[in-house]
User: Fold this.
Amino acid sequence: MIASVVATLAEVGDAFQAIVDEFADVPGVEIGDVGNDARRVPITIDSPAPNALEEVTRRLLECRGVAFVDVVFVHFEDEPESQAAANPGEMDKS
Amino acid sequence: MNGDLQPAAEAIQRRQFIKASAMAAATAVAGGTNFTLPVLADEPAAGVQWEKAPCRFCGTGCHVQVGVQEGKVVAVAGDRNAEVNKGLLCVKGYHVGAALYGKDRLTKPLLRDGDRYREISWEEAIKTIADRIEAAPERFAFYGSGQWTIPEGYAAQKFMKGGLSNNHIDPNARLCMASAVTGFLATYGVDEPAGCYDDLDECDVLIMWGNNPAEMHPVLFSRVIDRRSRREKITLIDISTRRTRTTEACQHYLEMKGHGDLAIANGIAHLLIKNGTYDRRFVESFCNFKASDDENPNLHGKAISFDDYRKSLEPYTPEYVEELSGVPADQIRMLGDLFGNPKLKITSLWCMGMNQHTRGTAINSMVHGVHLLSGHFGTPGNAPTSLTGQPSACGTVREVGTLAHALPGGRVVANAEHRQQAEDFWNVPTGRINAVPGHHTVKMWESFCTPTDQGGDIGTIWVQVTNPGQTLPNLNKLFNPKGDNKAGLEDKFLIVSDVYPTATTRLADLILPSAMWVEKNGVVGNSERRTQQWFKMVDPPGAARDDCWQTIAVAHELFNRGMAGMKDRDGQFLFDVKDENDKSVPVWDWEHYYDVNVDEHLFEEYRQFSRLKHKDLAPYSEYVKARGLRWPVVEIDGQWQETHFRFSEGFDPYVEPGKEIQFYHSSTHDDRAQIWFHPWIAPAEVPDDDYPFMLCTGRVLEHWHSGSMTRRIPELSRAMPGGYLEIHAADAAAHDLRNGDKVTIESRRGSLVIPVWIDGRGQPPRGTVFIPFFDETLLVNDLTLDALDPFSKQPDYKKSAVRIRKV
Assistant:
């Protein structure tokens, strides 16, 4: 799974770099160049885990100052076939 | 590099390239550079071909770039060239490609044989449907969808009304936005929003009326949040019956009781008049006043004076509104002050909260009325705007008119002139179109589920692209009647075209496997009047085929049998399609269906209708080039130009110079909109001693509607695996409930055993519970009430009285 997201920050003031450092601690994440716009942070996610995107997105959302996480790109070609489907009728509802 | 290592090295190189492309896309979106997709096509080794398509899911109309390799969708990216989403996607959008590849795709036609199904050929399937129709064409009904593409819906519409002289065609959109339609018609005389998404970039105040865009239209909500993060001042107000993710981002949360919106709208209007802050010039120039005609109930009511209107509003003081709605009087005054400030630009958004409402037409009209009364209309940022839940609820249902009373282009079957126009466009004999409206959705299904000898006059329904076995209200009444169960229904026959097994296919006698999304050509229309086109990119699995082909194939089978309705005035097949040499192409034969672009042929025929009500569409070829265009699209100096804001001079090409604002389809024929008074009325069912809770149903971020596609996507299923009951912590404590405990929830119509979630995704107030409807194993619509709005015929899924007990 390779994907990229953009994290939109609320007004974070001087805490910006600390928040970006917090993002970088998330496994599988790489932070892009934020340029002159310190509100939106480009991030790639590269992980063999098929559920990496949802997990990383959730962790990013939990980081302080994060208002929204939008997905920009996802490449799911490498996912095993068996992961590409689930029969709702067979799901455990407990 | 030896032969063993080379593939691994190439794989690493390719992975690095994909990752670089992913970062480039994100950097471009984050920083506003000029980067554009397609990205991987620049690298021959990648072998991925990129094409544009609108997302398959909601009505926002985000564009995606779809990466195809070796006949399979392998990647999806937000389309930076798309004005709607500017490169962004939501959690559903980025998984849209995976929706094609669930392991239980339907791939063969299946005919019920006792308790089992047997595979049959398409030829047998088509003949079976034709047999049913030929035997009793007047007892046949077509149940479609806001997920029908425009050509699919148009073909079904023409087949039914122009072919079978049968108006029993209605869509699932009846269940989600019919009240928005009647609200627009009652106010402006014509359907669909005047504003567009640009209003979200311009408004100072955004009011969400019973709306949760943070989960249901997340890319639009993200657009608003982005403004705030840029330190733009924007006030967000959430008027709702429960706290949601939207609430978390709002400065003001106004928690109301069900139907409290009726009182709130009246309270705002009351204050605008009392304080003298309504826009007198706007009202005197562009508006009339209306009220219900109780002696002769109809959509257009009766005229009243401004003084009548003022007197009707007198009781709705902030304190009385607080009593009715539960919203504190101070917050009502805040709304009154905001609407009374002409310097502010105010946009209202709504969706199911106002539409799934037994006074849906009324509340839609009243919110338009508040904007008109205050003059917050007709300039960027000042707009009352309804959102839709399906990708073509507007394009296919509202514009093509796949409703039981309608014809394409805002025409209606009850009007002789309208019928004649359609008959001329379709080149069918005068009198072919039946003047009597068909059954609306709830009536259609009630009739189908009623024995013929008890008045059930629908014998066969063909369902395409929707899942009524899960989404109709009061399901038990329809499909699990008490007493002698299904006696007397043996002659009924249900046909379902779908891509996956669903709650509806389980009820079906004949199941047809359909192509979906980029497995076929398509054109759709989103919430902001934007028409969007895409081309087929991959083949459907097995014997799955386009819904439009299925309709045309049945029509041709009937034509072959000599059914007069399948012929036009010249004796030609109703769906005759000619190639560039003016030679008929046998498009009813699947092998030849893609010899020509059937979508383009149908779209160009349909486009004639679009000019009848100033909803002009451009030629098909213009949509191929664009990421959608908002109608009316008119040709000026050789360029096809879209319209951002309707009825407003300088934006709308049909507003006459000097008019400023012109409601040119006014129901009073004086270019004026109607400001309505409607009284507050209690919901159809309210909690009592026996059923002390109010049940609200709805959607969640991860799943789209009935979940038939998104529950096949493992990431989304893991994120939100099953249905649940949201309950307030104090109510949970009173019932000795902890997270994960199961309860039996009962209404007067059914019951369900379901786990509870306390302080979870949403937080309902005391006395209210919430259940999402995406889970086909927990059918919440066994419980819901089937009370309807009197004009839109839309059910209220938001207010059913229930009781709970711990299991």
Chain B touches chain A through 63 residues (CB under 8 Å).
